[in-house]
DNA sequence: ATGTCAATGTTGCATTGA
C-alpha cells in the first residue's frame, strides 16, 4: 500500500499534475494540503474517474485539506476537535479517515508567520490540540499516521542553511518541543530518503531559485505509530514533482507499507 | 530547467499569505 502527503498549493492550479501523478505513482491514499478552494469546487468527479474517493475540509481561498483514497474511505472526521480559532474562525486544517487497514490524518499546521506574532501562538496551541486529539489512536494497535505540512523542520539538518533561519519560525525550540510532545504519544518520524543530494527536503521556496539551488526544507512529515512504522518498507521524497512549469512549491512524500 | 505563485477584491493591477 502506498500512502503519500503533498501540499499542492491550490488543487485547482495543480489538478492536471495531481491526476497524472496519482496514476504514474500508483498512490493508494493521498493526504492533500492547501487545496485553496471550497468543498463545492473540489474536483471530486475528476478524482472519482481515476477510482479515488474524496474527503474534503475546505472553505475557500486559504488552507483546506483532503484525503483521497482508492482503498476505502470511512469514518471521516473533519476538523481538529478542541482546536483553537484564529481571528474567531475555525480554519480548515485537519481531516482524518480510515483507509483500508490504516487510519490517517491530513494536517496543515499553521505557518506562524513570525516569532511573537499571534499566529505563532496559534500554531503552538494548534499543535497541542493535535497531540491531545491523536493520543488514543497513536497508542493503539491499528496502523496510524499523521501526515501533512507541519511547517516545522525537526532538526537543523532539515534546512539548507541553519544560519539563514536564525530568529525565524519553523526552527524554534518551542516548535520542536511541540513536535516532541506529539511524538511522546507514540508517534515517530518516518524519515524519507532523498532522490538527489543528501537531505530529504520537501519544500523549496518559489523565490530566488530555491529549487535549482536546493535551498530547501523538510517540513512535510509522516508521523506514524509503532504498527505503522513496522509496516514501512520504503519512504522517499518525489522531488521530480517539484520540477518544471506548474509545480507546487512542495514535493510529495511517499511511504510504502506492507499492509 | 530554474531569478515566485495563486486567489480574490480594490479587477485587468493591488493585496495577502506562503
From TrEMBL:
Where does the Endonuclease/exonuclease/phosphatase domain start and stop, copy by copy? Answer: 4-250
List cofactor names only: Mg(2+)
Provide the leader sequence positions: none
Q: Which Pfam families does the entry mention?
A: Exo_endo_phos
Keywords noted in UniProt: Hydrolase, Magnesium, Metal-binding
Q: Which InterPro entries does the protein's record reference?
A: AP_endonuc_1 (IPR004808), Endo/exonu/phosph_ase_sf (IPR036691), Endo/exonuclease/phosphatase (IPR005135), ExoIII-like (IPR037493)
Q: What is its EC number?
A: 3.1.11.2
Q: Please verify whether the record's keywords include Magnesium.
A: yes
The molecular function GO annotations come to: double-stranded DNA 3'-5' DNA exonuclease activity
The answer, when asked if Cell inner membrane is one of the entry's keywords, is: no
Enzyme class comes to hydrolase
The family line of this record is:
Belongs to the DNA repair enzymes AP/ExoA family.
Q: What is this protein called?
A: Exodeoxyribonuclease III
Organism name: Streptomyces koyangensis
Classification of source organism = Bacteria, Bacillati, Actinomycetota, Actinomycetes, Kitasatosporales
Amino acid at each position: 500500500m502506498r500512502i503519500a502527503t503533498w501540499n499542492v498549493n491550490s488543487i485547482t492550479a495543480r489538478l492536471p499534475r495531481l491526476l497524472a501523478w496519482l496514476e504514474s505513482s500508483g498512490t493508494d491514499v493521498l493526504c492533500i494540503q492547501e487545496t485553496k478552494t471550497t468543498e463545492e469546487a473540489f474536483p471530486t468527479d475528476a478524482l472519482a474517474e481515476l477510482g479515488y474517493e474524496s474527503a474534503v475540509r475546505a472553505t475557500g481561498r486559504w488552507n483546506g485539506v483532503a484525503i483521497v483514497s482508492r482503498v476505502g474511505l470511512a469514518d471521516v472526521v473533519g476538523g481538529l476537535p478542541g482546536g483553537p480559532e484564529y481571528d474567531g474562525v475555525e480554519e480548515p486544517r485537519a481531516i482524518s479517515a480510515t483507509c483500508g487497514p490504516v487510519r490517517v490524518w491530513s494536517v496543515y499546521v499553521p505557518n506562524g508567520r513570525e516569532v511573537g506574532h499571534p499566529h505563532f501562538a496559534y500554531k503552538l496551541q494548534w499543535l497541542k490540540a493535535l497531540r491531545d486529539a491523536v493520543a488514543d489512536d497513536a497508542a493503539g494497535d491499528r496502523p496510524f499516521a499523521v501526515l501533512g505540512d507541519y511547517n516545522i523542520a525537526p532538526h537543523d539538518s532539515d534546512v539548507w542553511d541553519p544560519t539563514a533561519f536564525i530568529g525565524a519560525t519553523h526552527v524554534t525550540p518551542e516548535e520542536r518541543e511541540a513536535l516532541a510532545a506529539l511524538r511522546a504519544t507514540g508517534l515517530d518520524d518516518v524519515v524519507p530518503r532523498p532522490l538527489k543530494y543528501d537531505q530529504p527536503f520537501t519544500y523549496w521556496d518559489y523565490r530566488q531559485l530555491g529549487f535549482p539551488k536546493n535551498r530547501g526544507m523538510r517540513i512535510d512529515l509522516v508521523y506514524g505509530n509503532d504498527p505503522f512504522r513496522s509496516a514501512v518498507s520504503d519512504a522517499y521524497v518525489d522531488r521530480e514533482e517539484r520540477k518544471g512549469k506548474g509545480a507546487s512549491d512542495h514535493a510529495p512524500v511517499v511511504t510504502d507499507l506492507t499492509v
